[in-house]
Structure prediction request, 636 residues.
Amino acid sequence: MNQDMEIKGLNVSFVDHGRETKVVTDVDATFSEGSITGLIGESGSGKSVLGMAILGLLPGSAKVKGTCLYQGRDLFSLPEKEMKKVRGTEIALIPQNPTESLNPIRTVGRQLVECVTAHEKSAKSRAGIRRAGIRRDELLGRFGFQDVGRINGSYSFELSGGMNQRVVSALGLMNCPKWVIADEPTKGLDSILRRQVYEVLKDIGRSEVRGMLVITHDITLAKALCDRLMVLYGGCVMEKGNAQAILEAPMHPYTRGLMDSLPEKGMRPIRRADRDKERCLAGCRFYPRCPWGEARCGTEMPPETTLLDGRTVRCFHYA
Amino acid sequence: MWMLIQYILKKMALLAPVLVGTSVIAFALGVMSPGDPVDQVLNPNGNESYTQEEYDRMSARMGLDKPLHVQYINWVGNLLQGDLGRSFFTNKSIVDQMARRIPISARLAGLSMVFTVVLGVEGGVIMAVWKDRFLDHLLGACAVTALSVPGFWTAIMLIWLFAEKWKLLPTSGIASGIGYLLPAVTLALPSTGVCARLTRTAILDEIGRQYVTVAASKGLSRRQTVVCHAFGNALIPVVTYLGTHMAGILGGASIVETIFAVPGIGSYAISAVQSKDYYVVQAYVLFSGMVYVAVTILVDLLYMAVNPRIRRGEAGQ
Prediction:
């Protein structure tokens, strides 16, 4: 069966006391089998919300519109009982904020085994737990832990941020899922561990899982790990396509700004938002900061334009 | 295990000054309270006369002619030998009386605690799971009612319904074990309400945390995430509340014991206060102080059981 994940017309908004705030607008994307897709963008651009929407784990105040086709089913309209079976086995999450992602009163080892025992009744048997334990120890070893036994018996508050980060990475992969959504998997790691983590993710992304979504603002990680990229700004996809092409020759003014702000490109910051233009809510999200902005950018949302190399850019400049 | 014993000893050492303080306060209460104990003994009915010589003799026999600090030391000395003196009126040994009454109060407190824990925690979990739905509102209203109705009113209503109208339970006394039921329910009602609301808030607080979302991402059902993950963390504030509450009712539920004629430690204290039986009051104050200290240690141990941050942090050092 086709293992692609196809998102169409995704809109997410949060309702708070009757006031609706849009956080993701008109996202269309296909995450195809065998690929690692990077979602990049600054904090608050809607990357994590997109990932959590796929898993159906947004809080009750969130309104999700659109479809997410996976194995012929729309994940957004799947009943909770079915969705429960999808989580962890079909699509798993490597959460961000690792220390908050682990229950402080349960040992790390137990929380990892639970990823497996949550699903099968037989997994709760002694043999099942032992098998899960072997998988857990192997994964922790791959993520660079030497004294696996000690880690298993520890609580999250006894481990460092970097250790917890690697623990939650293992957590996402415990039940051999088909898809993995990794939310900031290298945050808080030093460069050696960071390399190690993305080596493992890359390895797993290539061999063990069908596909992976990596949410990050670490462009180095995106470069090393991803085949495809999706650049988000203000909840809109600004540019998407082949990772190498986008990183080498960014087209959208935001992607260009993002690349120019990298240390190796001279660290030129994207310019600050223009106060007057900030009031134009109907148009392109990047308009207040865009160096190329035209009058219509403030009033009209630019369409997604597909370029010759297959990438899509949301900018009037290319329309 | 050794760590645990060390931890308990450390806690006890810290609480020793509290015990000393309690004993001073208890003793001072006896000394400062109005009325003359010697006069009370010689003239319990208020219409007998005695000579100054008799007064001095009795005062010497009771040890009240000595300076205060000597009296205190004697009192503590007797205390350590298990002697709290005798009641002025009944002339019965206070220790014997208390030894008879404490188990009764403890049984009452224990039964009421069972009600509070089972109904309160259960109710709180149900309210949290059904948040903002009908069941939540219904139980929430019940909880507020339960915690705001005064104990004596509940007691009267329960006696009227169960004893007078339906004739199911005795009005008072604990001749049969079933007699504990009404006082225990009366005692448990307000704390059940508080406990339910506290549990609900604590669970909802935990449910909003990220580790619960991550637990759901593993494929656990909502119920499993609440029961297996949020609940354990939510217990921490609930245990604190239940601990102080337990200390309070173990020290004697005076009003409820008096209404239901339960011969426990609380009704003993009330009658002692009414008849100015100061030795008994002294003993009671000391006892309730000790109960608080003991329960505090118990709560700390329970804390360690539910909270590994304390288990690893304090005992592990």
